[in-house]
Specification:
This protein is α/β, with parallel strands linked by helices. It has one domain. The protein is built from seven helices and 19 strands. Strands 2-1-5-7-9-11-13-15-17-19 form a ten-stranded mixed sheet, covered by helices on one side. Strands 3-4-6-8-10-12-14-16-18 form a nine-stranded mixed sheet. Helix 6 runs antiparallel to helix 7. The radius of gyration is 21 Å and the shape is globular.
Amino acid sequence: MSSTPLINPSPLETGLRAAFAARSQTSEAQAAAFERFQKHGFPNRRVEGWKWSDFNAALRRLQPANDRAGAVAIAPSDFAGLNPIEIRIVDGRIIVPGNDAVEGIEYGIIDPVGASPHMDDHAIAALNVAMTRKALGIRVLQGVELVRPVLIRHINSGSTPVFSQTLARAEEESRLTIIESFEGAGAYYSTLFHLGVREGAQVERYLLQNAGAEMITHAFCGVMMSRSAKFKQTSLSTGGALCRHETHMLYPSDGSESRIASASLLSDERHSDFTTIVGHQGEECTTRQLHKGVVRDRGRNIFQGKFLVERTAQKTDAKMTANALLLSDMAEANHKPELEIYADDVECAHGSTSGALDDDALFYLRQRGLDEHCARALLIEAFVGEVIDGIPDDGVRNIFGARVNQWLEAV
């Protein structure tokens, strides 16, 4: 492996280099990925897409250290009542159920991916490729409508950086529901999720970020859509020291559609970043994207969304909206919606707003007997409700709604 040393590396970067060099087995793809990471290092605010989420600054205080001792106590999941196929990734170790065979789905531990069209020139994704030893593989067979959801619990308990990968594929005309939760009070978690939605398949993905206030998370999801495929994703984040969730979607074929919705509920100094890039190449594809951010204290809400419409993507219908509600003078919201369009027969739009609670609406509710806390909570719940109410699954919608109410109790 050739050497491309980082300039002024942090203790974490130095430790990662030593850890990679000490591994007994690495593939050519992993060696190339680590070279790509070393070329760029962790992104900082001088990089356009990271100017509001300085990962380099956030991670410089971390040093690799194996501080985990013994088994991690894991509480039951909030989603346990949905009877899911529960898979745990605890400190990077994949734990699949050994006696829970379900017809129509295959899952297990596989070799990690070495490349993806979504990850070119992405330093953190390259680092994940280099450092992940084993991956979780999931495949729903053709024509199968999987009734039980697949629950993937990402659990980090210590200061050692954790890397994991999931490779999932929904075959033709199948249906799959995936729930991912990020839990624990660890320091740094990096995950790659590669999803292929084949022709006529439908996938619903739910993401709940509820880790500790010191957690630094980077979750990268790359989605490849086939003809007439459907994808729905709903995310709810209470942030952490810095939590960034990226979704990179590609429509190479015609007639696909997706709905991407996210909400951030941030207090103290928690930081949440939702970044999405949707590439339209096929004709007559539809995208709807909605983000809602509620920020109090010194929290930071980041939203970056981009629709790239290639010349071949005629009759694209894509709309993006981002709204933020600021509950204190020090709260911060940064939105960056983008449209890059090369086709001429499209309907594309984006919008962004930020502001405080409506004083007139607050006064109206107070005049009808509600105290200030209840009035504020009712308005915030209605603001976020557009994301939560769009969840088609009753059980998941109730769990997300309960998390919103739990956060509102402290407002």
